[in-house]
Amino acid sequence: MSDDAVKQAQEAAAAAAEAAEALQVQAQEAIKKAEEAAALAQAALDAQEQADAAATATAEPAAAPAEAPVAAEPATTPAATTSGPLDAEHLDAIRAGYAFERAALEMGALVNGDARPDVPVRIPIAMTNRHGLVAGATGTGKTRTLQVLAEQLSSAGVAVFAADIKGDLSGVATPGEGNERLLKRTAGIGQQWTPETFPTEYFSLGGVGKGVPIRATIAGFGPLLLSKVLGLNDTQESSLGLVFHYANNNGLALLDLDDLRAVLAYLVSDEGKAELEGLGGLSKATVGVILRELITFADQGADVFFGEPEIDTAEFLRVASDGRGIISLLEVPGVADKPALYSTFLMWLLADLFTDLPEVGDLDKPKLVFFFDEAHLLFKDASKDFLAQITQTVRLIRSKGVGVFFVTQTPKDVPADVLAQLGSRVQHQLRAFTPDDAKALRATVSTYPKSGYDLEEVLTNLGTGEAIVTVMNEKGAPSPVAWTRLRAPQASMSPSPDASIDATIAASPLLPKYGTGIDRESAHEILTKKLAEAAAKVDAETAAEARARADAEYEKMQAKIQADAAKADKKAQAEYDRLMKQTSSGSRSRSKSPEKTALEEVLGSRTTQTVLKQVITGIFGMAKRR
Q1: pLDDT tens for residues 264-296?
Q2: Where is the composition biased (Low complexity) (predicted)?
Q3: pTM for this prediction
Q4: How far is CA 551 from CA 539, 542, 557, 558, in A?
Q5: How far apart are alpha carbons 134 and 426 in whole angstroms?
Q6: In whole angstroms, what is the distance from residue 468 CA to residue 480 CA?
Q7: Residue 108 is inside which H or E element, if any?
């Protein structure tokens, strides 16, 4: 057989294989559609049978024995007879999808027309380090979901860190209060509710608000995060990076804003310009922008957030003596006034944890779960470099035993690269009042696996305390989408009393270590001293030059004075000699007597000569200045 014939035969065989594969796919799709149609038909048949049975029961009430008691099971599990969007097959799939072998966090019960306590919805604790998202419109129960997760993680021995923006989470340290409505709701989802408290530590940014102060040094914060919080462009961010590089190489500790301002001012001064030769230098205009932004930053109260002692982020991994994880709450009242600072500071905490913690791989439970509330503040106006750092941190920090849950209003608040790494999702109600809302709703629905729900309709009709949940199962695959009625927190859903918070803070073992700020020698003091020494040296050199010039001028004047004095003395002597000569001549012409006259004796005396010299000198104005 020729090569062409072989080639044609091979091509024909390949085409036949492709056609067969296509037919197989079509057949599978047809089978699937047939199964779905059969399931729908069966569901319709079951519904019709139930309707017929109900009609028969209504028409023939006497058929039931008078002494028969009311069945207890339907009363306690009404959902078993309530029609919902899911058929029996879907229910079984969800039940199996959340039946994990290892420890899990109890989220609540499936909703299918009503709650189904026989179908619990859970999150494997081992998968909480694969991160998660809690989203939903304001007032739909996100904070309560966060509290439920935090309480159960603490009970499982996992430390928790969360920002308490409105103060609501502080109630985890106070036992909850039961009431009839609460107990009815919890019983309906199979939750055995009891009041409980959890070990809690309160923190504050730099001591603003209640809590142990959290501080960071400027050097620890780094140029990238600082550029984000200052709103700098790429050029200004690059210049700030050069400043940090110079300070690090020259032993100038950047602890607070004064240190950074001092280095910036020094590097554009006459004394400091030469320091950056070969490194590109700094533009005075760029430094001016950065300094102005630092002033604005300080006016927002940021001065107190930077300095020492810098918090050791390992403090957030502590476990109480009873084995429960400590819930660390960052009390940040008024965060709306400084959103960039708040979000960037939390990102610093996360980045610092990533830097300090060792690699541990996949653990049975994480060391810490970090809840990032109001996450949209972190990503707003973020540069590409900043987003890249966030993405890398979230992707890699799970191997350090840390899970991160972002809490925000809609999934679109979180960049796609970050959203793709979030294994668990708890989506509360979304509202579609505007075209943008509707677009966001459709985008959210498109990110979920296929389910038996019309998610666009369900997401806009969820009640408070209900959510659409999907998690990463123990094999790393997404669980079925489950409409869930969530558990109630066991601690108080109201803020803890101020007196209780104050007592907890006063008793904290961290307060002696971090409560009082310290101010050691750093860049500001070093450069101030250096500039003062340089200024003193310049002043000394200037003074020496001035003294030298004054001494030279003085010597010149002294020489002139002495010359003028000598000249005057000489002239006075000449005048004196002339007078003496005249006097002597007149006297000799009048008298040949060898004896001196009285005038000659007077003029010839030393005293007379001195007086005459002084008079003559005074006449010519040449008296010496003493």
Answers
A1: 999 988 888 888 776 777 888 999 999 999 998
A2: 45-82
A3: 0.71
A4: 18, 14, 10, 10
A5: 5
A6: 10
A7: strand 104-112
